[in-house]
Amino acid sequence: MESFRIVLMLSLFVAIFILVQTDRVERGQAMLGGAILFLVLGWIFDFYIFQEAFQAIYFDSLALLFGMSLISNVLYRSGIFHDLAFKAVRFSQGNRLLILTLLILSTYASSLCFNNLSVMMIVLPLTLVICQSLVMPAAPLVAAELIASNLGGASTLVGDFPNMIIGSVARLHFDDFIGGMMVPCLVLLAALLLQFQRYATANAASKRLDLEAIHQALAKLSPQHASAGRIFVDPYLFKVGGWAFTLSLLGFFLAKPLGILPAMISVLAGVAMLLWGRIPKESLFAAMSGGDLLFFLGLFVMVGGLQAAGALELFRALIVTLGGSQSTTTLVVLMWLAGIVTPLFNAGPTTALLIPVVQEMSRDFSGDAIWWALSLGVLAGSSATLSGATAGPVVASTMARYAREHPRDRAMAGDVLDFQGYLHWGVPIALLFLMISTLYITLVAA
User: What is the tens place of the pLDDT at every residue in 328-340?
Assistant: First the structure.
């Protein structure tokens, strides 16, 4: 009976994810439906009850996502990100290699605290226009930006949802992630820049950027933020969002010594944005990442069902068996397993799937290296394929639409970022990330 139960629950889990990945159903509704199905089956086979499902939900992670999403929305609508992006272009003074490097670095920096998808939706239009001006394909640069966004998100507690889950379960704070993840992520960022620099030097045309043409194109792409030859910033929204962001960061740094949960700070910031952020009612659900909240709510319940059925014990047994008696080897196996599974399920779901396993294993490990191994493995895996990170498919569809709308642009002719084309960039980078991360984990676990 137990074997049948494990096979049944794993099969349902995979089937639901196939539906989600193929966009046949809305992802939030699919996961909620899956959660209900898991609860029904748990009741029928008497292994999973409502109380266990409730305990499987990481409310701290959802709270962090809620608050940071609202802050990101308010700052996005203020136009400050658009203004900073265009100032970076002007700072380059037309130097093509410098602006390409600045785009990647600014993507990383923005992703340290803001939603990866929001960051890419700001950087992408600018990237497409710049590549058009340079008469070079945009796909390689966009791929590098996606990976840089993953790196930025993995560097901090609030940069991406996998770290939010890890932080809430392991009771790690903002400064813990700065100390444990930012150094390896900066090393990986340097490796990414070196890889991309060779491509940019070999393929970009020998011409400087036409700054005025870029501004005009950006004005068409984002008319609500362009006025009188410059990018317009809403002073009220910038003030409200800026203060919320600054105070939240300060609160995250002080949370550990004061004994305050980062989730509480995020919720307070989110409520402040609801009160003073002037968020349109029709976009309120999207502003708070409502779809993602429902998605992960259902996902947590489903993962709890897998754990109750005994399915996750298979992962733990596999890691321990391959790792042997050496703790460092076990951590490396965990990291590589996360790197292999993430391209299949996406970064957030993979983290949620492995969290109960790692939480059980963490009792045998001192320090936080086991959590960094999980985070670095998910980071590498999310960079391997276009569907590894949430922003990937959205960016690809946006590029395809841009190419259709600009059929005469030589730089964009046939330049789309599809799943197979991205593998050419993602897989080598992911393997490089895993190898460098293996060295890091070996050092910190010694």
Answer: 999 999 999 999 9
